[in-house]
Amino acid sequence: MPHAKCFICNKTAYNLDSLKALDMTYHKLCFKCTSQLPISRLVSLVDNTFLVARISGSICGITLNLKNYVTHDGAIYCRAHAYAATQPTPSSLDQ
Q: pTM for this one?
């Protein structure tokens, strides 16, 4: 019986190294947050103050598992980005 292919990398996914979510098979290391939303990070400045830096265009990429992933519109997210993905964008608020 042939083994399933990983939905992300299309390589053979053996049972011990894979998981099933959304009726698809993934390697455990391929199952990552796909968010491309801006990531906010606290950046420490020299005088011990903090600045929130928004890094746009970055992919989150945190490795997920069956206990901590969330889906929205068929995409896989970590909990923080799933919440952000469900919020209206500024351009959709203008309409």
A: 0.65
